[in-house]
Amino acid sequence: MSYLGSRNVAIFSCDLDSFDFKAKDATQVINSVLTKLEKSGKGIILMHDFQKHTAEALPVLLRRLKAGGYKVVHMKAKAPLQTLAEYDEAVVKDMKLPVASTRPVNNVVQTVTE
User: Fold this and answer.
1) Looking at per-residue confidence, does 109 or 30 come out higher?
2) In 3D, which of 34, 19, 29 has the Cα closest to residue 54?
3) What sign does the CA torsion over 13, 72, 56, 38 have?
4) In angstroms, rounded to a whole number, what is the distance separating the alpha carbons of residues 61 and 72?
5) Of 37 and 105, the one with more pLDDT
6) Which of 5, 61, 84, 90 makes a 20 to 30 Å CA pair with 42?
């Protein structure tokens, strides 16, 4: 953590997991989040933006959070993180897969005509 701090990299985690990937519908996502928030009173909520039920739940959830006095905060980096050349080289060296395939593209890609 000290090293990341020296590079101005913030570290945080979630306090509440919505378990939206297990939800059967948007109502379940909303109820899960609000029930957990009632217990803790605050926190960072983990949600997965690629889940259909999460997308459906967000308009209602955001309105209910606002009505409950919660604030939604957008966290954004001050500046882009610069990679370090020595680590980039180590990652490439440690990769087990080839960077480019030797397999001809026509074996993988097929052109479909009408």
Assistant:
1) 30
2) 29
3) positive
4) 11
5) 37
6) 5
Measured between alpha carbons, how far is residue 84 from residues 7, 96, 99 in Å? 11, 21, 19
Span 40-88, pLDDT tens digits: 888 888 888 788 889 999 999 999 999 999 888 877 778 888 888 888 8
- Amino acid identity for residue 59 in this structure: P
- pTM for the model stands at 0.60
Helix 26-40 and helix 52-67, axial crossing angle in degrees, nearest 10: 40
Average pLDDT on 13-21 reads 89
8 Cβ contact list (under 8 Å, min separation 6): 78, 79
CB 71 within 8 A of CB 44: no
CA angle 20, 48, 38 (to 5 degrees): 55
Q: Three-state SS for 100?
A: coil
Residue 29 burial (CB count, 10 A)? 27
